[in-house]
Design goal:
The protein is α+β, with helices and mostly antiparallel strands and 155 residues long. The protein has helices spanning 2-21, 117-120; strands spanning 22-26, 41-45, 55-59, 74-81, 104-108, 123-124, 128-137.
Length: 155
């Protein structure tokens, strides 16, 4: 009984800490394919310290025109440059500087058709909500149709 009285408050405290420090986000859209697909559920740790290559979740700044209604308040992108890094080639027309400024990062979607820093410019680090640490649930994927030896899809 004494152990149980100790474990209940401990579990409640742990649940509260996780709720404040973590977030569950559902991917909407195809901008992060092939890594993440529409409907995947991601575990995000709330933090603003990021490094190149990490997938981040953020609320789009007011100056960024975000996708169609219903996509939710969060965007999921990959950090490709951090403060002090050279500005990536794909952003040269958008950025007027040679290096990523302090307090900013460059984020790209994994898909070539993603709307991201190539369109909108630098993302303020303060806009970051957190870093993706795990995929908790994969959305169902359509079956892949086998292709014939000639490279055309089988009928």
């Amino acid at each position: 009984m004494t152990v149980l009285l100790f474990l209940i408050p401990l579990a409640a405290g742990l649940a509260t800490a996780l709720r404040r420090g973590a977030l569950l986000v559902t991917v909407r859209g195809a901008s992060m394919e092939p890594a993440y697909h529409d409907g995947d559920r991601l575990l995000v740790l709330r933090m603003r310290w990021v490094r190149r290559g990490r997938t981040v979740v953020f609320r789009a700044p007011a100056t960024w025109p975000v996708g169609p209604p219903g996509f939710g308040p969060y965007l999921v992108k990959r950090v490709v440059a951090v403060p002090g890094d050279p500005v990536p080639e794909g952003m040269r027309g958008v950025a007027a500087t040679e290096r990523v400024p302090r307090g900013r990062v460059v984020v790209y979607g994994d898909s070539a058709h993603s709307a991201d820093s190539r369109d909108w410019g630098f993302l303020p680090v303060r806009a970051l909500t957190g870093v993706v640490v795990a995929v908790l649930e994969r959305a169902p994927r359509p079956p892949v149709r086998p292709s014939s030896p000639s490279g055309r899809e089988a009928q």
